[in-house]
Design the sequence.
């Protein structure tokens, strides 16, 4: 044990804290393969280099959320980031090394339709919302803006993306092509499915945290 002032801190706790900080720094400074940028440009040619870099920041944040969530499932709120994640997985050795060093385990991609139940998908999107809000200093139950991962697709004009609104009239989960982010922080299961969809449709939204 070590003494810091008058506080007695167990050596094991210090070691765990050091490991957590090392993983956080590893993810933050990791140089993603250039192929990820090219893949996103192929899928969405209207994006500028600056916008692509913004999407990569979203991918970095998503991995940080998965690290924080440990083995609990975290839904993917952004289609653009999901494209990047898909491409990264194809770099199998790099991806495995990244997962081991940055997250401490292999992070599986679980498509929304493969989720065990709608409830599990709802838990995943609420967890993504809560962790993303906390990371950006946003009150999850009283947000004044959308966190990066939930704002990204609309900001980048991703036509097939997941677009969120802070406030939705009538208390519905979805209005047209816009999902109700303003209700995700509630405790009554009013969030959409993995990737934000209330019906879990589509094969693009992914969830990290599946069994490994």
Sequence:
């Amino acid at each position: 044990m070590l003494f810091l002032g008058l506080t007695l801190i167990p050596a094991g706790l210090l070691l765990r804290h050091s490991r957590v900080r090392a993983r956080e720094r590893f993810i933050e400074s990791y140089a993603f393969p250039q192929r990820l940028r090219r893949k996103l440009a192929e899928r969405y040619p209207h994006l500028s280099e600056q916008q692509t870099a913004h999407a990569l920041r979203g991918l970095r944040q998503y991995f940080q959320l998965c690290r924080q969530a440990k083995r609990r499932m975290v839904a993917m709120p952004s289609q653009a980031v999901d494209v990047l994640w898909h491409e990264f997985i194809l770099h199998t050795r790099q991806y495995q090394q990244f997962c081991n060093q940055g997250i401490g385990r292999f992070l599986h991609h679980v498509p929304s339709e493969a989720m065990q139940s709608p409830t599990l998908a709802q838990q995943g999107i609420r967890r993504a919302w809560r962790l993303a809000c906390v990371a950006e200093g946003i009150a999850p139950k009283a947000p004044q803006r959308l966190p990066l991962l939930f704002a990204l697709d609309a900001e980048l004009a991703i036509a097939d993306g997941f677009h969120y609104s802070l406030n939705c009239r009538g208390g519905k989960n979805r209005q047209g092509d816009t999902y109700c982010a303003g209700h995700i922080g509630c405790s009554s299961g009013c969030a959409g499915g993995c990737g934000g969809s209330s019906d879990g449709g589509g094969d693009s939204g992914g969830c990290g945290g599946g069994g490994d």
About this structure: The longest strand covers residues 2-4. The two ends are 34 Å apart (CA to CA). The chain has seven helices and eight strands.
